[in-house]
Amino acid sequence: MEKIVKRKFMTCMVAGLFLCGLTLVARTPDDRGYIVKTGDVPPDFSMTLTDGRTVRLADTRGKVVMLQFTASWCGVCRKEMPFIERDIWQKHKDNPDFVLWGIDRDEPLETVVKFVQTTGVTYPLGLDPGADIFALYADRKAGITRNVIIDKEGKIVMLTRLYNEEEFGDMVELIDRLLEGN
Fold first, then answer.
1. Are strands 64-70 and 98-105 parallel, antiparallel or unpaired?
2. What are the CA-CA distances from residue 154 to residues 7, 42, 114, 151 (Å)?
3. Of 71, 140, 166, 179, which sits most exposed with the smallest number of CB within 10 A?
4. What is the pLDDT of residues 78-122, one digit of tens each?
5. Residue 123: beta bridge partners?
6. Which letter does DSSP use for residue 143 in this model?
7. 32-61 as b/e, with b when 16 or more CB fall inside 10 Å?
8. Which pTM value belongs to this model?
């Protein structure tokens, strides 16, 4: 009886170490700091927007979603945001199958509200205290700006890092294609 218990214990330990190893491998950042990849189901989260509404990613299933990780101190973010506003938000804001949320990394509401005012963007920005939402998608120490595009099936289809005109153009085209026929 004791041998059976020891064997079961060892089997559970090996299985546990194996599963733990898989988790560590899956959470290892890529060369751009992402811990998610295209094809993944994005980690769910809830977030409070600057207008006080609470939103949840899981509630967007069946829609094309763009998550933009940003912060007021990020110069590249400030450079990219007017293009997001003009080329994506203004084009698709009235489409019920499209969601765009800016996710401000670890800044208080007052700072984020001022950030929205100074950049002139009209798309919704939400608060990410402690960068906990960011840490679901990228290494907590990794930089921003970065965008995550999610298709109607709820899978990540594009990940961007920094602002590159060609990559941004590809992202705009992808969003347009994903929303065709709506």
1. parallel
2. 41, 7, 32, 5
3. 166
4. 999 999 999 999 999 999 999 999 999 999 999 999 999 999 999
5. none
6. -
7. ebbbbeeebebeebebebbeeeebebeebe
8. 0.84
145: preceding bond cis by omega (within 30 degrees): yes
Residue 13 predicted with pLDDT over 90: no
Q: Mean pLDDT throughout 124-136?
A: 98
pLDDT at 9: 46
- The closest of 56, 70, 38 to 151, measured between CA atoms, is 38
Average pLDDT, the chain: 90
Residues in CB range of 167: below 8 A, 6 or more apart = 160
d(CA 73, CA 136): 21
Q: Which residues fall within 8 angstroms of residue 134, CB to CB, at 6 or more apart?
A: 69, 103, 105, 106, 128, 140, 144
CA distance 145 to 79: 10
Helix axes 75-84, 109-119, angle to 10 degrees: 60
122 contacts: CB under 8 Å, gap ≥ 6: 85, 89, 93
What is the spatial distance between Cα 39 and Cα 158, in angstroms, rounded to a whole number? 9
